[in-house]
Design a protein that fits this description.
Length: 395
């Protein structure tokens, strides 16, 4: 009796772990399937159901943004950056451990004939798919759906107008005049290059205030904004030719703290615009222009007009070299020095990584409905010229 009882207990004990393991596998599979179904259903609604993306942006995403700002606002640097590093370390480290366990079992002859020998790899695959499904769900709910919402220009009633070469040139001349006005007002270092008058954190706070002020004119942008976060290891962004990045994982606006100073206020506002669900890059550029030039801070005004000047004069260069040359000579020496330093900075970091990054970004934008890919950033010229025509064209 005692021997049978021990045997019965031994058999029962051997079966329980398998039951637990099977339950874990089933739960993991169910969670992955549910997340995938929810994600693709929401995307289908955004693409096919009229008004769904607008409703989502104003009723769901807006509140998620406020909640994320409260949670992740306590971190002075990008939380998403370090979450990403931890995910990479976990993925690589756990895969290496799984492979090591498999290699160890190679020396056990009995294990060679068992499917359980590959069980560590199977566990890693399930966990990886679970994490990937969670990240995909966060991307869809915090970014993907918003790509299908009504554009900012349509929502705000901003009229897009056809324009001529002359009107493009006049816009460039106006922007040159504004750059000239603020080039003398910003602080400069010993070499004459623009530097921020405040710390980057204080500049970030002003960026949030500038966006909040812009919300008084455009209600769709109203509400409070979190302070943009610098990427701690910004060299990575520099090598990828990125001035900033919006993180759907933590709903944060992140920027490259290494780049030339006049880029920073504009990039902060650009990324913050994504927190209102406006994902089209040309519109984010236009919103950044409006926020910067509407600020009372000279750094922001100079940044806004400089970036707009670069975008419009690039278009003028393609349309008429002679007109471009005429406008270019009117730029003050201080601004020309800033442009030279900026070009040198990005040229230093050009390479394979920046080319790959450009191709990935181009594909990403096209997949999400921006048919022009990375060229969509330059489409802001249409908005800027229309803005000039609307406000100054008849003067």
């Amino acid at each position: 009796m005692i021997k049978k009882n021990r045997t019965a207990k031994g058999i029962k004990a051997a079966k329980e772990p398998k039951t637990v393991k099977t339950a874990k596998v089933t739960r993991t599979a169910i969670i992955i399937i549910v997340l995938q179904i929810l994600s693709w259903t929401l995307l289908a609604c955004a693409w096919r159901v009229t008004g769904f993306a607008d409703w989502w942006a104003t009723h769901i995403f807006r509140w998620w943004t406020a909640a994320a700002g409260t949670v992740f606002g306590v971190f002075p640097v990008s939380a998403a950056e370090f979450v990403l590093y931890l995910l990479v370390i976990w993925a690589v480290g756990s895969l290496a451990l799984a492979i090591w366990e498999i290699c160890k079992s190679e020396g056990k002859r009995r294990a060679l004939w068992r499917s359980e020998r590959l069980r560590p790899l199977g566990i890693w695959v399930r966990r990886f798919l679970l994490v990937a499904s969670v990240l995909w769900f966060l991307f869809v709910t915090c970014s993907g759906i918003n790509y299908q919402r009504t554009s900012f220009t349509d929502s705000a009633g901003i009229k897009m107008q056809e324009y001529t070469l002359t009107e493009l040139k006049e816009t460039c001349l106006w922007l040159t005049e504004m750059v000239n006005e603020y080039a003398d007002q910003v602080e400069r270092d010993g070499d004459g290059v623009m530097q921020l008058s405040l710390t980057q954190h204080e500049t970030g706070q002003l960026a949030a205030q500038a966006m909040e002020s812009l919300g008084d004119t455009y209600p769709l942008l109203s509400g409070s904004y979190p302070t943009p976060k610098p990427v701690t290891f910004s060299r990575i962004l520099s090598l990828l030719s990125l001035t900033g990045v919006y993180s759907p994982l933590t709903i944060e606006a992140n920027y490259n703290r290494e780049m030339t100073a006049y880029n920073i206020p504009y990039s902060m506002c650009h990324e913050l615009s994504h927190l209102r669900g406006f994902m089209q890059e040309q519109e984010a550029n236009f919103i950044a222009f409006l926020a910067c030039t509407g600020s009372e801070n000279a750094d922001f005004c100079y940044s806004g007009y400089m970036l707009a000047w670069i975008q419009c004069t690039n278009a003028l260069y393609d349309a008429s070299r002679a007109d471009w040359s005429e406008v270019r000579t009117l730029l003050p020496e201080e601004a020309q020095l800033d442009l030279t330093v900026n070009s040198a900075f990005w040229n230093t970091h050009e390479g394979v990584l920046s080319e790959v990054s450009d191709q990935v970004n181009d594909t990403y934008l096209k997949v999400n409905g921006q048919s022009d890919g990375v060229l969509s950033y330059d489409k802001v010229v249409d908005l800027l010229v229309s803005y000039w025509m609307e406000n100054f064209g008849d003067i």
